[in-house]
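Z., the sequence and structure:
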Amino acid sequence: MKRLAAIVVLSALGCRGQTSEEPPVALLRNMHQQQRYNPQARSRMFADGRTMRPPVEGTVPFGSLIDDARVATGREEDNSAYVPTVPEPVVSQATYRDDQGRRHEGMDALTLRGHERFNIYCAPCHGRAGDGLGMVYLRSRRPSVGFPYPQPANLHDARVRHMPDGQLYATISNGVRNMPSYAAQVPVNDRWAIVAYVRALELSQAPNDGAMP
């Protein structure tokens, strides 16, 4: 009993209740103090002098490999041209459940999903109608801003309406001019879904000139 009391007293004395300036006790000090590089530091080990190494060319995140080049890039397998329409595997695998719990499949599901994604990622610049009059552009034209943002593309222009679906997909993936790439935010199938919805949006306002199939 006396021994237990002595241990308790000694333990209490060890808790001094204040911050110590002494270095912490490290049983394996080499785990605390070891050679390392700081972020963005220079390195003499590599020819380009960079410590932070870029991913090896061709690597993809685990579970993100897409074997179908037409689906992944929007271009034909021989890279000769953009695919004319949304690839069939994307359409056949598409499913969507709406707010009422109803299940949709195929192009119907792809278009509904694309409508949802378009309103999130595209409408701020291109506008919900796809006319290039999104809130980013309209608010930039206020006198208090001082610099009007370049007007985004009107998705109903003949240039966009006659663009192959694969080119529209590649634009979302890679960006163009003032538009950045959305590959990090929008997965592959969702990009195709946006393409499908843009085509539906264009058809809703297309002139009756037979220009669109």
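The helical segments are 2-14, 69-73, 88-93, 106-126, 135-140, 158-161, 165-174, 188-205. The radius of gyration is 28 Å.

Let me know what you think.
H.
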